[in-house]
Design goal:
Strand content: 15-25%
Largest sheet: 8 strands, mixed
Order of helices and strands: HHHEEHEHEHEEEEEHEEEH
Radius of gyration: 22 Å
Structural class: alpha/beta
Number of strands: 12
Mean pLDDT: 90
Low-confidence stretches: none
Oligomer: single chain
Helix content: 25-40%
Length: 302
C-alpha cells in the first residue's frame, strides 16, 4: 500500500470537516488538489474511502479503518517532530471540544482549576456543533468533547468503534425574559402565555427545534431575531427584543436585566451533558482535564 503523509493528512481533515471544500480551506489547498489526494489514496488502497452526497462526504467502512491507522501514524510523526526539535512536551497537550453553552461556566471553571492545580497541562479548546465535534474526535484532532443531548440519549454516531460516552450532569431548560417585562413577576409561566411572544433564536440542524424557542409549543413561533451566540441572545432579551431559552447552568453568568423563569404546561425540557471520547486508555493530562470537568459538573448539579 503506497500512501503518502500528505494524503493521510488530507484524509484526516476531510473526515473532520465533512466536505472537500472545508478541508481545502483549512489546508490552504484548492478543492481539486484535495480531490486528487483522496483519489490517489483510494487508488493506493483499492477501495472507496468516502461516500459523496450533495451535503458533503462521509467515510466508508474502508475509510474509517484507514483513518484509525492514519491518526496513529500522524500523531507518531508529530511526536517525533517535537522530539527532534527539542520541544518540551512534558506538560502534555489536551484538545477539548465543547458545545457553546458549556464554555462560559463548565469549560472556563475547569481551565481556572487546571491553571491553579495543574499548570503544566496545556488545554486547547474549541467550540462546535455535535456533528463537527464528533468528526474531530474520529479524526483524532480532539481528545475529548463535551456534548449535549436530548432524550432519548443515543450515541452521537453509529460508527465503529463505539464512542465512550460518560454522562456528566443533567441540565434543564429555562426561559430568559426581560427583568422588568410582563413575564418577569413570577417564577413560572404557562406555555399558553407564550403563543404570541417574540422569540430570539439561532439556527439548528435539520429536524431539530429552533435553538432558543421552547420545544413543543403549538403553532409557528414568531422569530424576529436570529443569533448563534447565547450571550447575544440574552442581551437582546435585556433590550426588550423578545424571549429565548437558556440552560439553567448559565444562571451565574446571565447578564443584568434578565430573569430566568420556568415553563409549565409542557413536559420539562432536560439536557444531558456528556464527556465523549474514543475508547481506550487516556493520558495523565487528559485524566487531569476529565477530573476538573467532573468536579465542576458535580458543583453545578448541586
Amino acid at each position: 500500500m503506497d500512501v503518502t503523509v500528505v494524503g493521510l493528512r488530507v484524509l484526516r481533515v476531510v473526515a473532520e470537516r465533512g466536505t472537500f471544500t472545508g478541508a481545502a480551506r483549512e489546508l490552504g489547498y484548492t478543492q481539486s488538489a484535495v480531490s486528487r489526494q483522496v483519489a490517489g489514496l483510494e487508488q493506493a488502497v483499492d477501495a472507496r474511502l468516502f461516500d459523496r452526497s450533495p451535503g458533503g462526504v462521509r467515510l466508508t467502512a474502508a475509510g474509517r479503518a484507514l483513518l484509525r491507522h492514519a491518526v496513529t501514524a500522524l500523531d507518531a510523526l508529530d511526536a517525533a517532530d517535537r522530539e527532534l526539535r527539542g520541544a518540551d512536551d512534558d506538560s502534555g497537550g489536551v484538545r477539548l471540544g465543547h458545545f457553546p453553552a458549556a464554555g462560559p461556566v463548565l469549560v472556563a471553571r475547569a481551565l481556572a482549576t487546571l491553571g491553579r492545580e495543574r499548570p503544566r497541562v496545556r488545554l486547547a479548546t474549541r467550540e462546535g456543533t455535535t456533528p463537527s465535534l464528533v468528526r474531530a474526535l474520529r479524526a483524532g484532532t480532539l481528545d475529548v468533547a463535551l456534548l449535549s443531548s436530548r432524550p432519548p440519549h443515543r450515541s452521537p454516531d453509529t460508527d465503529d468503534p463505539a464512542l465512550h460516552v460518560e454522562p456528566l450532569l443533567e441540565d434543564r431548560l429555562v426561559l430568559a425574559v426581560r427583568a422588568d417585562g410582563p413575564l418577569a413577576d413570577r417564577a413560572a409561566v404557562m406555555a399558553q402565555e407564550l403563543a404570541d411572544v417574540t422569540w430570539i433564536a439561532g439556527p439548528s440542524g435539520t429536524g431539530d427545534p429552533l435553538l432558543g424557542v421552547w420545544p413543543g409549543l403549538p403553532g409557528r413561533p414568531r422569530v424576529h431575531h436570529a443569533a448563534r451566540d447565547w450571550l447575544t441572545k440574552l442581551h437582546l432579551v435585556a433590550a426588550g427584543a423578545g424571549v429565548t431559552t437558556v440552560p439553567a447552568t448559565l444562571r451565574s453568568v446571565t447578564p443584568p436585566g434578565i430573569r430566568l423563569v420556568t415553563v409549565t404546561g409542557l413536559p420539562e425540557e432536560r439536557r444531558r451533558v456528556s464527556l465523549v471520547r474514543l475508547p481506550g486508555p487516556t493520558t495523565p493530562p487528559v485524566d487531569a482535564v476529565l477530573h476538573a470537568l467532573r468536579g465542576h459538573a458535580a458543583e453545578l448539579a448541586d
